[in-house]
Amino acid sequence: MFTEEQLKAIEQGKADYQKSVDKSLKKFPERKETFSTSSLDVDRIYTPEHIKDFDYMEKLGFPGEYPFTRGVQPTMYRGKFWTMRQYAGFSTAEDSNRRYRYLLDQGSSGLSVAFDLPTQIGYDSDDKMAAGEVGKVGVPIDSLADMEILFDQIPLDKVTTSMTINAPASVLLAMYIALGEKQGVASDKLGGTIQNDILKEYMARGTYIFPPKPSMRLITDIFEFCSENVPRWNSISISGYHIREAGSTAAQEIAFTLADGIAYIDGAIKTGQDPNVFGKRLSFFFNSHNDFLEEVAKFRAARRLWARIMKERFGVTDDKATRLRFHTQTGGSTLTAQQVENNIARVAFQCMAAVLGGTQSLHSNSMDEALALPSEKSVNIALKTQQIVAHETGVCSTVDPLAGSYYIESLTDRLEQEAEGYISKIDEMGGMMEAIEKGYPQQEIQDASYTYQKAVEKGEEIVVGVNKYQIKEEGRDMELLRVDPSVGERQVKKTAKVREDRDNNFVQNALDDIRKAARDEHENLMPYILNAVRGYTTEGEICNVLREEFGEYQENIVL
Amino acid sequence: MSERKIRVVVAKPGLDGHDRGAKVIARAFRDAGMEVIYTGLRQSAEQIVATAIQEDADAIGVSILSGAHEHYFKTIIDLLKENEADDVVVFGGGVIPEDDIPRLKELGAGAVFGPGTPTGETVEWLKKAVGEARVGS
């Protein structure tokens, strides 16, 4: 890229520059001895020397072309903005439906469903494990009856829906398909995503049910079912988000997410599926954290590394199946309970990093999330932040505007290398499932998280309003969203009524069929689950049968 | 005679899987010379109290972000009373609205630490609280 002569001239220039730096340092010492991103040292300046072997065609190419460093579509946001998708769900299907319709009215372009913890872990609202948790962090969905209310007046052929559901993803996807049937929308017209990523649950998020092997089977069953019946559906969203929230560095976020992806692909190939086909329906989910430039580089590095993995490791020949498409959420754990309004600024920068990194879909967090679920006002500010980035800042006028920056390209390379190093280590352990069993990624994440916490407490990392520039805050005048405590009771009654009104013989037979299918590894479970939910079999009933057949995962505690 | 080390159970009650804070504080307690028993995820109030009694713990730290804090604090504190173990100091942290804290204290929680609290502050508080509880018992 640069000639020997040019590099020599730069070297000479840098030596002269160093003299003036030395002089300047005497008068104005730098703020810190060393500067760094979440895990890499940062040099004072970046020059062509940092990227001297840079091959444009190999490293960047063109947007919409392998290795997709510059983005997965040829024109990116000049054609269409990313999907603005706010994660929401709370109290009841009725309340959540109202919030969705409000967000759509405000210009949200897709829905993102937050389920409550019992739903995420396969318990009905009347299960004793659900006590105190119904409707708290998301919406409770026990049966198709709740789904009907949740999407009331929302046409499933007009919106795309992302559902954050993992262990029982097959059940909720089945309910969505059944709801489509009721609305007259065929399954091949449904668009959206289920998270369906169990490995990161064992590693970082904790909403697992079954042990890894049957979980993997459920996931590959979904891949197969979707390839044939729900072709527009993203059958998985391989998620680094929670890995980062648990405290990982940027490079670990890339590495552990892609290593999870490798495990899913290995699993699906073992069942005879073609990565050229299901590879097109894989999607990813990343965090947008505070270190603005590192985040931009992170998204670009992840895209390039994944394209190479698909092509070189799995022999994928269809370029479309090597594209890493991703949703981004701004970093929930970066938000502070102190001076909550500051979070608006944090979220804006994180949105900008996601956009400069080429995201396909974005959720911007609301300022009050370190305190409670977002209020309508705060979620609206968060959504408007995305609209301001899209329409007012000008960053969407050209594709990948930071490309060619010495720092960005060098950082992209280094993050890619560091992530590859982790992936090699995981390969040596026998793959991600084995690495998780050994507690390896968990330990790496916890070490990073504790190191960061100590740096904050020593004042080496500054968090505005928390360890510097504090102000005394007297009583907040913010309206926080409160979930009505009687929600649980009402939901329990509602589900009892569903059980009373349905054909219980049908339900029993459907559950027996699921049990039989669970015992035969060669059966795909999806059609049986779909059949059951059509007759209002509850999520808990289905998951309980699977629990009996598959057993439950026991956490490997690493401190 | 040297004073017995503080033994603290760090607990994750209910279905909430966010354990970053619990693990950070567990390590901070350990670095401060305490004996830490971390329960892992999905513990019922009964399991947490049984662990505390069995381990002869001085304190239970409850980490909760799911909004079920009132339910779990109340059940844990009630169970400790039933088992005549109410000298065990109960405290907690997580995403807990400030307005709810007085109610949790009324139930018997010694302290509730919000997001962003330096670990050192929690460590110091716990040393003092356990010291007082030991004198009182």
Describe the fold and architecture.
The complex is a heterodimer of chains A (559) and B (137). In chain A, 49% of the residues lie in helices and 7% in strands. With 559 residues, chain A is an alpha/beta fold. Chain A has a nine-stranded parallel β-sheet with strand order 7-6-5-4-3-11-10-9-8. In chain A, helix 10 packs parallel to helix 12, helix 10 (250-270) crosses helix 15 (406-429) and helix 12 (292-313) packs parallel to helix 13 (342-356). Chain A is globular and about 85 Å long. The model of chain A has no long low-confidence stretch (mean pLDDT 96). Chain B has 137 residues and is an alpha/beta fold. Chain B is built from five helices and five strands. In chain B, helix 4 links the parallel strand 4 and strand 5 (111-113). At the A-B interface, helix 4 and helix 17 of A face helix 1 and helix 3 of B.
Helical residues, percent of chain B: 40-55%
How many β-strand runs of chain B? 5
Order of helices and strands of chain B: EHEHEHEHEH
> Mean pLDDT of chain A, as a whole number?
96
What is the share of helical residues of chain A?
40-55%
Tell me briefly what this model is.
The complex is a heterodimer of chains A (559) and B (137). Chain A is an alpha/beta fold and 559 residues long.
List the defining traits of the structure above:
heterodimer, A: 559 residues, alpha/beta, 9-stranded parallel β-sheet, two-stranded antiparallel sheet, B: 137 residues, 5-stranded parallel β-sheet, 16% strand, globular
How do the strands and helices of this protein lay out in sequence?
The complex is a heterodimer of chains A (559) and B (137).
Chain A: H1 4-27, E1 35-36, E2 41-42, H2 56-59, E3 83-88, H3 93-105, E4 110-113, H4 117-120, H5 144-150, E5 161-163, H6 169-183, E6 192-194, H7 199-205, H8 212-229, E7 233-234, E8 236-239, H9 241-245, H10 250-270, H11 275-278, E9 282-288, H12 292-313, E10 326-330, H13 342-356, E11 361-363, H14 376-392, H15 406-429, H16 432-437, H17 440-457, H18 487-501, H19 504-519, H20 526-534, H21 539-550
Parallel strand pairs in A: 3-4, 3-11, 4-5, 5-6, 6-7, 8-9, 9-10, 10-11
Antiparallel strand pairs in A: 1-2
Chain B: E1 7-11, H1 20-31, E2 35-38, H2 45-54, E3 59-63, H3 69-82, E4 89-93, H4 101-107, E5 111-113, H5 119-136
Helix pairs in contact in B: 1-5, 2-3
